[in-house]
Amino acid sequence: MSIISEHGFRMDGRRPAQIRNINTRLGLNRNAEGSCYLEHGNTKVLCAVYGPYESKASKRLEDRCAIVCQYSTTTFSGLERKNRPRGDRKSTEISRLLEKAFESVILTESFPRSQIDIFCEVIQGDGSNLAACVNATSLALADAGIPMKGIASAATCGIVETKPIVDLTSREETDLLPRVTLATICGRDEVILVELQNRLHIDHLSVVMDAAKATCADVYECLAVVAQQHLKACAPILGN
Amino acid sequence: MEVHISDDEKLFLISGVEQDIRNDGRTCADFRTIVLERGVLSGTNGSCRVQLGQTTDVLAGIKLELESFDPAAEKEAKQPMSFHVDFSANASSQFAGKGGDQYGEEISAAFQVAFSRSLDILPNLSKTLLAEGYRWKINVDLSVLQWAGSVPDACSLAIIGALSDLEVPEVEVAPDDGGKVSIVLKRPRTGGNMRDEEVPVAMWKLDVQSCPMLLTVSKIGSANLVDCSPEEECCIRSQLLIGVAKNLNVDDYDITCIKQHGGGLLEMESIQDMTELASKTAGGLYQAIEKRLKTEEKRKPGHSFLL
Amino acid sequence: MRVPPLTTCEKEVILEALKSGKRFDFRGLEEFRGVKLVVGSEIGTAICTIGNTKVIAAVSAQIAEPSSMRPHKGVIIIDVDLSPMANVSNEHDRLGSKGMELIRLLELIIRDSRCIDVESLCIRAGKEIWKVRVDVRILDEDGSLLDCACLAAITALQHFKRPNVTLEPHHTLIYSEYEKAPVPLNIYHMPICTTIGLLDKGQMVVIDPTEKEAACLDGSIVVACNKRREVCALHQSTNLVLSTKQIERCVKLAMSRAEALTAVVSDVIKQDQRERSAFKRPDGFSITTPSLILTSGTAAARQINAPRIQHGREPEEKMLYQPSVIVNENPLSVGSVKQEEVDEDALIAEQLSIIQNSVGGVAVSDPQSSGVSKRKKEKEMVDDLLDGICDSEEEEVKTEILGSSEPMEVVLPVVEQQKDEEDVTSWRKKKKKV
């Protein structure tokens, strides 16, 4: 089955430039400083943020805050049962990318010698897992009230026969499809995370990049609305 | 989450409990509000989410696997269910990396013991044995998303919910070449001219009336309690994980497992008292679950998170 | 061991220089360091040098059972060793985050980009496959570690040849290289990595930064491209804030570099193949080390044309005695030269006379005689020791003093015309000792 049918529809009925429905809920986790549950269609991600708190001696940085990320998937999140929820190479790599991305966004100079923990749990993975984690983390950080340069938004884009497709599902994430996960701040042209899977021809690079950037801007609009609504809902508590 | 309370608070708590009054107004045998929702995940064969008192949050997911085994190599029939409890780092920073592995393994082992006679207890579980050398393997995985005491209780409720939600496909077993068997999904033809793949597969459900339940009974001072909050867990003398199963023949409860969690000393009479309390509480819980499972409407999967 | 951090003044100087477009090794901001690539004498080994960064890669293959998930695909395993030899901050036997990143990148480039045909590595589906192992050892670190490691690994894979196999009904026959020529791996394309450093929020681009420069930069990005103008990997090494245009620019720079380096790799492999097919013994890694070593000298081997001895009696029974020195023969090996017992005294007397006659032509100047006699003593000591070890009689042991410009013409102590009786008897004693 081809990814884009002859009429121009994808397997789940979307158009190539259409993203899935985004559903969010903030403040689920009572123990954490900030938490967010985010859905990109069938991909469900839970993110919890702890901190900033005094860091352990091994991780302490004198001039800025240390960011520790952990990406884990539940054993029942994928199509086949996975034995190890975390600790394998792929999860460590994604954790590292999340750390690097958010080090650029969070104003770490405001909290020297402290640590911020970001934990992402993928409850159900149906493609674009990394992008969903970045979005969930941005909202969780906003919920925790940690100062940032802006809300980061991410999207995964692939290309099929010179046509870009955005927000891939797991059925579309095949071994042959080149895809780029891009994260930007506030939908502007400031890229904080870039990850490429499979080989991409250089002529297609600018096409994919532009599509990804546009999608990030769209996702940012959704996330910004969510953050504003949450703030309005909390305003009575703040005594405003 | 590590809760630190002062000695005066502990004293207040212990003396209150000994008079059957807890800090949040419950009695010693009361549970916190339980929210149970099934069918939460569409990617699993059965799932359930349980919230205890709005803080402890456990998600259970079941995945089926077709397993081939060597009947000669196994002396007794192996249990088709395997349990795995994972503490997500969302629950607490201390569970990051390998922090939650030890506690998770302890609870998984307790469940394995509690369900060890499940082939006798659960009436139609033996249907999972398909043919000589093939059976369904039921992998029950639990993910603890939030932690505020009483994790084993929440886990056992989630397991019962998920098992009742589980749908196992019906299969037809036919002999094949080379001594093997071919296993094909059964699709009952209801007439009409639908293609073979479009006919939905027939499913059967497990009967969970007498499913074992794992309860945590703790001893604070001279009183026995169920469902401790984190503050109460700081004051306990000792804790027992007791597995209770409903006996269908006699209107009574069987104890399938007793495990001590943590340290502490217990007298023989205390253990008897605690098991009695566990049976009584289990009775109440079974009734509540039955009522809930009957009256629950099927909602959109995953809706519970958005509430 | 902790590496002392970069001092603030060093950092400021480097940043200032970079901002004005100058670098400490006189390169331009967009200039690469020279790359040296050498393949070893053993098949499947390569050393890559970029500036001061040195990496060695070795490829080996083994037959193994495939995983049940992929029964007809071969397996490629990558192992990286970051030893304290490269950088003192590395821990021995433990891969820190840098090592994990390197392994991840190598896996991405070699495994995930599918540059090697793993299906051709299958011998028997479900039972036997080739497990190819790439070992990468970092010898020295000075920036662009990922580039160097990838290049070394790719060259080693290109160079490697696995043994040829045939399938028999009940077993697999593996041929050695002498029976059937080994088969090279089926490589579709060669991904080449480039490390691009970023400065000033991505406004400036610094190509191929050294270790010191990398510590001052804002961040870096690694791009892997191949000759077919495909981007194989876009790896974010550190945190960065870039625009998409800048990313595209970096990719273009990496692309041109990849094309140049692919040509270099192919050249090196072709040259090595030419040498091997001409049956020339490959130089291997010896050409990487400069041959200027002051602490050892070479001495030319000299062959002594020893005279033949006439036998007086019983010629049929005795072997032809040839007290020749066999050059390159290990005099310490037991039983290398077997000789029979001959009448010693007459033999010795004859030999003496002959040697005296031939030695007469050599002029031994007086000032050297003292030195010569010292050496003579040393030689005697050495001869004593060697004789003691030697089993066979009449074997002459060649001892040369290294460093001497004029090796002694004869092994035996220099015999002057007026030979002492002592000397002869002592010499005889030596012989008798055996």
Automatic annotation (TrEMBL), chain B:
| GO terms (BP aspect) | exonucleolytic trimming to generate mature 3'-end of 5.8S rRNA from tricistronic rRNA transcript (SSU-rRNA, 5.8S rRNA, LSU-rRNA); nuclear mRNA surveillance; nuclear polyadenylation-dependent rRNA catabolic process; rRNA catabolic process; TRAMP-dependent tRNA surveillance pathway; U1 snRNA 3'-end processing; U4 snRNA 3'-end processing; U5 snRNA 3'-end processing
Q: Which GO terms describe its molecular function?
A: mRNA 3'-UTR AU-rich region binding
The entry sums up its family as follows: Belongs to the RNase PH family.
**Domain Exoribonuclease phosphorolytic: where?**
30-169, 214-280
The lineage's top-level taxon is Eukaryota
Q: Name one Pfam family in it.
A: RNase_PH
What's the encoding gene here?
exos-7
Write out the GO cellular component annotations.
cytoplasmic exosome (RNase complex); nuclear exosome (RNase complex); nucleolus
From the Swiss-Prot or TrEMBL record, state where the protein is found.
Cytoplasm; Nucleus, Nucleolus
Indicate whether Transmembrane appears among the record's keywords. Answer: no
- Where does the record place a coiled coil? none
Question: What's the protein called, per UniProt?
Answer: Ribosomal RNA-processing protein 42
Tell me the SUPFAM superfamilies matching this sequence: Ribonuclease PH domain 2-like, Ribosomal protein S5 domain 2-like
Q: What is the lineage of its organism?
A: Eukaryota, Metazoa, Ecdysozoa, Nematoda, Chromadorea
**Keywords per UniProt:** Cytoplasm, Exosome
Q: Which residues form the signal peptide?
A: none
Automatic annotation (TrEMBL), chain C:
Q: Which InterPro entries match?
A: ExoRNase_PH_dom1, ExoRNase_PH_dom2, ExoRNase_PH_dom2_sf, Exosome_comp_Rrp42_subfam, PNPase/RNase_PH_dom_sf, Ribosomal_Su5_D2-typ_SF, Rrp45
Instruction: Provide one Gene Ontology cellular component.
Output: nuclear exosome (RNase complex)
The molecular function terms of the Gene Ontology recorded here are:
mRNA 3'-UTR AU-rich region binding
The subcellular location is: Cytoplasm; Nucleus
Q: Indicate the principal place this protein occupies in or around the cell.
A: cytoplasm
- Kindly give the SUPFAM superfamilies that the UniProt entry links to this protein: Ribonuclease PH domain 2-like (SSF55666), Ribosomal protein S5 domain 2-like (SSF54211)
One GO process term, biological-process aspect: U5 snRNA 3'-end processing
Q: Which family does it belong to?
A: Belongs to the RNase PH family.
Q: What is this protein called?
A: Exosome complex component RRP45
Tell me what organism the protein belongs to: Caenorhabditis briggsae
